[in-house]
Specification:
The chain has 16 helices and 4 strands. It is mostly helical and 372 residues long. It starts with a helix and ends in a 13-residue tail after the last strand.
Length: 372
């Protein structure tokens, strides 16, 4: 256990980083929060999506569309009798602290999945490009299933979220289409890596599967993988998105996604320990898988094994914890300390951004299979 994890275990994350969720109103309030670390809802330039041309990747695109149409997960997101029985048996065994971390995991996951559903559906409704409309219809369908399935598990805790109310009330962030491509591709691929890593761990250690939802993760994450493939094809169809100054944007988004995940995951040490994982080891395994996958489309990747990279990630974590302590402290001193820690975070992020990166030669064949 490294120093960052050891420090985490000495901190009451439930009290420091989040208020307790005890009701549906609390769960909805958590989902509505917009911070650097929380999932957001997005809108974009729909006219730019209308101008997308996927003809350079038409052959691979048509194969992918056939897979979407086949919908091999159409009957997957259904709770069976065994699911209900496991919930009754396992939920009373969770400690109050683990219960809160698991609830936070479910709310964050639901918000992220529902964010994709809303974005894809809004793009579909506001464009005429038949290829992109078809794609967005399929992806919105998948994400809607995912969000609904998670919400059913929240209802087991009497914490179900009103998704319609969430859509109406949560604020939206505008992203240029290319930022949507980079960020959403990464989100879908890292989502696959997160889910498959958890699934493989609990496949080996079924005694540590403290909730039945984890049994659904293998086929579930294959939806995430396919969504990422869609954005990979869109980017490969326009080489400008992967060259010049856009290489810097790609580098920025990879680092931002990794740093956000690292800090957020270390606020849930009990969740990972319950599955027989340590937050740091889990995150770097997810980074490794994601980096391997991203070689299909991104011309650069971060050197996640560079000692300065690892030190910088741990520093961002400690800065985040200090920022939260200052927030809890409140008053003029607390406000001043929050500003100081925000500047420290920007400086540390900038230092990480300047570290050497690895260059990738893109493969001729874009599509990949989920083999991890």
């Amino acid at each position: 256990m490294n120093a960052a994890i050891a420090n985490d275990r000495n901190t009451d994350h439930v009290d420091l980083l989040m208020s307790r969720v005890e009701s549906s109103a609390d769960a909805t309030a958590r989902a509505l929060v917009n911070t650097v670390l929380s999932p957001r809802f997005y809108t974009t330039d729909f006219a730019a999506f209308d101008r997308l041309d996927i003809e350079p990747v038409r052959a691979e695109w048509d194969v992918m569309m056939a897979e979407y149409e086949g919908d091999n997960n159409h009957d997957h997101f259904q709770r069976d009798a065994q699911f209900a029985e496991e919930v009754k048996q396992l939920m009373p065994q969770l400690s109050p602290e683990l219960r809160q971390e698991f609830i936070d995991f479910l709310i964050s996951s639901l918000t992220s999945e529902f964010s994709g559903c809303i974005l894809y559906n809004e793009i579909r409704k506001n464009i005429k490009n038949p290829d992109i409309r078809q794609l967005m219809t399929y992806m919105a369908r998948d994400e809607s299933r995912h969000a609904g399935f998670i919400n059913q598990s929240l209802k087991d805790f009497n914490l179900g979220i009103d998704l319609g109310g969430l859509k109406r009330s949560k604020s939206y962030t505008f992203f240029k289409p290319k930022y949507i491509f980079y960020a959403t591709y990464l989100s879908e691929k890292i989502g696959y890596a997160r889910y498959i890593t958890i699934f493989r761990q609990l496949e080996k250690h079924p005694d540590k599967r403290f909730h039945p939802i984890f049994r659904w993760f293998e086929r579930w994450c294959n939806d995430e993988f396919r969504h990422g493939e869609s954005f990979a094809l869109i980017m490969r169809a326009d080489p400008k998105l992967l060259s010049g100054v856009n290489r810097l944007w790609i580098r920025f988004f990879i680092l931002a996604v990794y740093a956000t995940m690292y800090v957020r995951d270390h606020s849930r040490p009990l969740l990972h320990e319950a599955m027989g994982l340590h937050s740091t080891d889990y995150d770097y395994e997810v980074f490794r898988i994601t980096s391997q996958i991203c070689r299909q489309v991104f011309p650069v990747e971060l050197d996640i094994d560079h000692p300065s990279f690892r030190r910088g990630m741990d520093k961002l974590l400690q800065i985040s914890l200090a920022h939260q302590r200052a927030k809890v402290r409140g008053g003029p001193v607390g406000l001043l300390l929050q500003g100081v820690h925000a500047l420290r975070a920007v400086w540390t992020f900038g230092t990480l951004f300047m570290l050497p990166v690895k260059s990738n030669e893109l493969p001729q064949q874009t599509r990949m299979a989920p083999v991890w």
